[in-house]
Amino acid sequence: MPIAYKEYGKDTHNNHVLFVHGLGASSISWKDIPYTLSNYFHTITVDLIGFGESEKPEQADYTVKGLSKFIFDFITWGPLSMRFLDNIRFSNSWLYKMPIILYKTGQGKAPIWRE
């Protein structure tokens, strides 16, 4: 299934930051922030399944739980998985070592930084 994403600073940095847009939006919401931060990090923007330039299958799970699973799968099994996992040690909490920035998640607070 085609998933739209963009990378910045990928050839110079091993510290990754993933930018995830909110519901009803797309990765364009981030404007030039990922590019600007690419001076310090390998930054990635992704269009959630069903949004932006990503595929919009009718049978996808568009709940918060389903979209969370999509992000988890994108990190662990997607096209960038080896790059993400290269410098993250596997443990029960390996996923929590990668910063993920969320925008307009429907919780009334945005942006959200989770590290």
Note the overall shape: globular
Q: Unreliable segments (pLDDT under 50, ≥5 consecutive)?
A: 89-96, 107-115
**What count of domains describes the coordinates?**
1
The helix/strand order is EEHEHHEE
Number of E-type strands: 5
Task: Determine Rg (CA atoms, Å).
Answer: 14 Å
CATH topology descriptor: Rossmann fold
- Helix amount: 10-25%
Task: Look at the helices and sheets and give the structural class.
Answer: alpha/beta
Task: Work out the strand percent.
Answer: 15-25%
Report the major sheet.
Answer: 5 strands, mixed
Q: Spell out the CATH superfamily.
A: Alpha/Beta hydrolase fold, catalytic domain
* Mean pLDDT reading: 77
Helices, by number, come to 3
- Provide the CATH top-level class: Alpha Beta
Largest sheet strand order:
1-3-2-4-5
- CATH level-two architecture: 3-Layer(aba) Sandwich
What does this structure look like?
The protein has one domain (5-114): Alpha/Beta hydrolase fold, catalytic domain (Rossmann fold). Helix content is 22%, strand content 17%. It has three helices and five strands. Strand 2 (16-20), helix 1 and strand 3 form a beta-alpha-beta unit.
The gist of it:
This protein has 115 residues and is α/β, with parallel strands linked by helices.
Map the helices and strands.
Elements: E1 5-8, E2 16-20, H1 33-37, E3 42-46, H2 64-77, H3 81-86, E4 100-102, E5 112-114
Parallel strand pairs: 2-3, 2-4
Antiparallel strand pairs: 1-3, 4-5
